[in-house]
């Protein structure tokens, strides 16, 4: 009896490994696809968070994704800011003026080098929410995300891997390869609805379905983007802190000295700008001794917002801070002369910025 059971077990095991061997190519391709989608997701987030460094200039703040490739050229289109979403191909790479090509997936590098005319152009498809393209304006933590995946809203981008061609899908010509219906199933092949799924829609009989989707939520994107903004703000505050009095008791009076209301009285260490309004004081004889202009009335004392304005105006802070209206979505609280807290609207993270202290930036949560 035991011998018979062993024979049955061995036969079943043999059949299992034969079946797995037959499927080996498909399983390996599925694993590679999943790995490539994760890599592409990480590359897209890195591209968006570092967009100001890749493309310096006005209206080039963080959070912007490349436009989809709608002509199989392998590059993002120059403009794509209409409709709820734009669904074409994920570009092979984007050219950047200072850093050269920025690749989004290793798979695409290999595919772009393939010269066989009958290659299966299974380049990933890519859905992008309106408002997050490179040519959109005023992008900050409150910008709405318009994509829905598996019934869940607030997705900014989706990477879609098509499966093997189904019965009605033809991919033999360039026109075929640029038609989403030849790669994607319902609802993923619908136009401008913003609704996507990793599962077939209920139907009788069931429709074949082999799409796989990896998404980027607004919270995931803004976790990286708000850190980028916090770093930019910290640099401006540190520059202000250091520029008030480079040396204790220095006779020079930089313009930014106005931002510490007590400067004429306590000629001490400068500090991060304050949000609370101090009581009015007279500058007294110290202003005369140090050659300082009269202290303005308390109601005229500039606060954090003015420091940010001036930092943009004098070129020490990126213009995109004002262009994307970040100042309007940030709450700023001074904790001490060397520490402040930042809160971004629609993000759960509280950033603590510290002057000359480790860690210089702390965050309360791992994700927005």
List keywords for this structure.
single chain, 368 residues, alpha+beta, 2 domains, six-stranded mixed beta sheet, four-stranded antiparallel beta sheet, 10 helices, 12 strands, 30% helix, elongated
Describe the structure.
- By secondary structure, the chain is α+β, with helices and mostly antiparallel strands.
- The protein folds into two domains: 14-217, no CATH class; 225-363, no CATH class.
- The protein has ten helices and twelve strands.
- The strands form three sheets. Strands 1, 4, 5, 6, 7 and 8 form a six-stranded mixed β-sheet that branches. Strands 9-10-11-12 form a four-stranded antiparallel β-sheet, with helices on one face.
- It is elongated.
- The protein starts with a helix and ends in a 5-residue tail after the last strand.
- Mean pLDDT is 76; it is low at 1-25, 112-121, 245-269, 277-284 and 295-302.
Number of helices: 10
Mean pLDDT: 76
Q: N-to-C terminal Cα separation, in Å?
A: 61 Å
- Category from helices, strands and their pairing: alpha+beta
Name the overall outline.
elongated
The percentage of residues in β strands lies in 15-25%
Could you tell me the number of beta strands?
12
- Domain module tally: 2
Question: Which percent bin holds the helix content?
Answer: 25-40%
Q: Which sequence of SSEs, written as H and E, runs from N to C?
A: HHHEEEHEEEHEEHHHHHEEEE
Q: How many whole angstroms does the radius of gyration measure?
A: 28 Å
Low-confidence stretches: 1-25, 112-121, 245-269, 277-284, 295-302
Q: Summarize the main sheet.
A: 6 strands, mixed
């Amino acid at each position: 009896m035991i011998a018979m059971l062993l024979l049955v077990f061995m036969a079943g095991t043999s059949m299992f490994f034969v079946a797995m061997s037959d499927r080996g190519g498909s399983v390996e391709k599925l694993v590679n696809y999943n790995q490539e989608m994760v890599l592409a997701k990480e590359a897209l987030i890195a591209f968006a968070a570092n967009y100001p460094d890749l493309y310096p200039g006005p209206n080039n703040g963080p959070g912007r994704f490349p436009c989809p490739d709608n002509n199989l050229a392998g590059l993002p289109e120059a403009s794509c800011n209409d409709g709820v979403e734009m669904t074409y191909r994920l570009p092979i790479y984007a050219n950047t003026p200072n850093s050269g090509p920025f690749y989004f997936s290793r798979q695409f590098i290999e595919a772009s080098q393939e010269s066989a005319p009958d290659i299966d152009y299974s380049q990933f498809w890519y859905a992008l929410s309106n408002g997050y393209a490179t040519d959109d304006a005023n992008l900050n933590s409150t910008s709405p995300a318009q994509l829905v995946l598996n019934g869940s809203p607030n997705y900014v981008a989706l990477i879609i891997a098509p499966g093997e061609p189904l019965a009605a899908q033809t991919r033999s010509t360039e026109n075929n390869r640029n038609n989403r219906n030849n790669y994607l199933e319902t609802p993923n092949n619908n136009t401008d609805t913003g609704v996507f799924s990793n599962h077939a829609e209920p139907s009788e009989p069931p429709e074949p379905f082999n799409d796989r989707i990896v998404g980027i939520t607004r919270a995931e994107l803004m976790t990286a983007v708000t850190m980028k903004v916090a770093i930019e703000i910290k640099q401006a505050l540190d520059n202000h802190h250091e520029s008030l009095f480079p040396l204790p008791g220095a006779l020079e009076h930089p313009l930014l000295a106005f931002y510490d209301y007590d400067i004429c009285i306590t000629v001490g260490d400068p500090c991060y700008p304050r949000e609370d309004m101090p009581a009015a004081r007279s500058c007294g004889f110290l202003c005369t001794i140090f050659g300082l202009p009269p202290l303005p009335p308390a109601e005229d004392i500039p606060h954090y917002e003015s420091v940010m304005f001036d930092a943009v105006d004098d070129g020490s802070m990126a213009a995109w801070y004002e262009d994307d209206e970040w100042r309007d979505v940030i709450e700023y609280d001074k904790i001490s002369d060397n520490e402040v807290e930042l809160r971004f609207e629609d993000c759960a993270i509280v950033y603590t910025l510290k002057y000359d202290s480790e860690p210089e930036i702390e965050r309360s949560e791992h994700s927005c």
